[in-house]
Amino acid sequence: MSDATDYLMAHAVQTTLEARRMPPSERKTKMRTIARIYHLLAKEGAYEFNISFLDDYRAVKAAEERLRSKTPF
Question: Where are the domains of the chain?
């Protein structure tokens, strides 16, 4: 299960760094929120011995993809 938490933490870091490069906007706020959710999912996956957090991951990933495709840079 360590791989899943590492994967989620990498997404959190990547999304946070991307949001930091953005100018202040609503989109930046949403990207930071998505990064926080990835971080929480990584922590949940590390402490619990179940895979129920993967459903939450799929929902967050879909939201991130919708946000990215909405207005390209």
Answer: 2-68
